[in-house]
From TrEMBL:
Annotated GO biological process: negative regulation of oxidative phosphorylation; respiratory electron transport chain
Limits of the Complex 1 LYR protein domain: 8-61
UniProt xrefs under Pfam families: Complex1_LYR
Name assigned to this protein: Electron transfer flavoprotein regulatory factor 1
Source organism of the structure: Anser brachyrhynchus (Pink-footed goose)
Protein family according to the UniProt entry: Belongs to the complex I LYR family.
One example GO MF annotation: enzyme inhibitor activity
Domain of life: Eukaryota
InterPro entries the UniProt entry points to: Complex1_LYR_dom, Complex1_LYR_ETFRF1_LYRM5, ETFRF1
Cellular component GO terms, alphabetical: mitochondrion
């Protein structure tokens, strides 16, 4: 069970790191904040707590995607209207 959760956490970290490349404040800012957030919770051993943290990370992914889509939409709207 721990190995599957570890894989999920690593996958979440990679996805967030990939999405952070386009972050408005810069990739370095995002990377440092992401690393700090993951290091803060590195000692969590309870599987239920880990699942809650993974769910929170997936929510952050959805919010970042929404932010990027909104930014692209505003850029297109500004160009063509």
């Amino acid at each position: 069970m721990a190995n599957s959760l570890r894989g999920e956490v690593l996958n979440l970290y990679k996805n967030l790191l990939y999405l952070g490349r386009e972050y408005p404040k810069g990739a370095d800012y995002f990377r440092s904040r992401l690393k700090a957030a993951f290091l803060k919770n590195k000692d969590v051993k309870d599987p239920e707590k880990i699942k809650q943290l993974i769910a929170r990370g997936e929510f952050v992914i959805k919010e970042l995607e929404a932010l990027y889509f909104l930014r692209k939409y505003r850029a297109m709207k500004q160009r063509y209207y």
